[in-house]
Design a protein that fits this description.
By secondary structure, the chain is mainly alpha-helical. The protein folds into two domains: 4-183 and 280-309, Rossmann fold (3-Layer(aba) Sandwich), CATH 3.40.50.620; 195-274, Tyrosyl-Transfer RNA Synthetase, CATH 1.10.240. The chain contains 14 helices and five strands. The protein starts with a strand and ends in a 5-residue tail after the last helix. Bound molecules: tryptophanyl-5'AMP (TYM). Its EC number is 6.1.1.2.
Amino acid sequence: MKKRLLTGLQASGQLHIGNYFGALKPFVDTYEEYDSFLMVADYHALTSIKDAKTLSGNILEAVRVYLAIGVDPERATLFKQSDVPEHMELGWIFNCLVSVPFLQQAHAYKDKVAKGLEANAGLFTYPMLMAADILLYDAEVVPVGEDQRQHIEYAREAGGKFNRAFETEEFRAPQELILKGVGTVPGVNGEKMSKSYGNTIPLFATKDAIAKAVMSIVTDSSGDTPKNVYAIHSLYRNEDELTKLYEENKGNYKALKESLVEDIEAHIAPMREKYQNISDEEILSVLKNGAEKARTVASKKMETVRKKVGVALY
Ligand code: TYM
């Protein structure tokens, strides 16, 4: 029996190379060793997107990216969260088990409050829906970037609270899988690459758009090696190659950035071609099949969970 793996990404818009190296590539490299579930977290995206057309488009985009980077939908269950209402149901049960101060410690919520922005209740309870995403499938392995570490801890905690409250061993503890060196991919300003920070290099952009983003990488003039350029470059080339390249182009930031553009382009071009040839029909059919498979697992689990909490009377 293969171990079960589950991961997901929010349907929140254009994906960037941080998503790719932090989560998508590690998934593609290992998913066949596991019984893998790959989810588009569309209800999570609703915490920030309030436009139907945008959200629908983002869901298609996320699946198109999964397929373009090489996920075979015959070998992984690829589905969207909203097609499996059991996620919301289990999320609710977890909400009833955890305290408000516990959820107030969540980074995403704290960041929003620190910026003086109003957090909606969906954002506040986000970690419990994510716990449900993982625990519904008894997933043991969850490949993610470093920024999701706390969310996996929350999932373990939610499962533990359920087990203690209902004196059961219903939920097993999931483990995050965070790869060294790509746990936090930096953006063009050196901070974590994130759509909400506006510092991304888009994954499937045109060469011109990639070049524009790379040329905007912030360089400091304190040394010969522009460290922000180097950090991103090291995702594409090994240390020996980079040492030579950066030695030969000492202080020539423009040449180094141009070389980085070429490396990104060479890497992305074949995937981009595939990406452009995936039809909406193909995506919809993948999602429908995936929904059926995911629901089979999730509904079975929820039947037991409902019995354990005492609401299943017939
Ligand atoms: P999301 O959509 O923000 O990001 C998707 C994945 O990309 C990783 N990532 C990064 N990794 C390295 N460097 C970066 N700069 C970078 N930016 C993003 C994220 O860590 C993530 O792995 N809450 C999740 C989605 C989710 C989920 C789940 C994940 C919902 N349910 C269940 C796993 C299991 C999120 O917002 O990821």
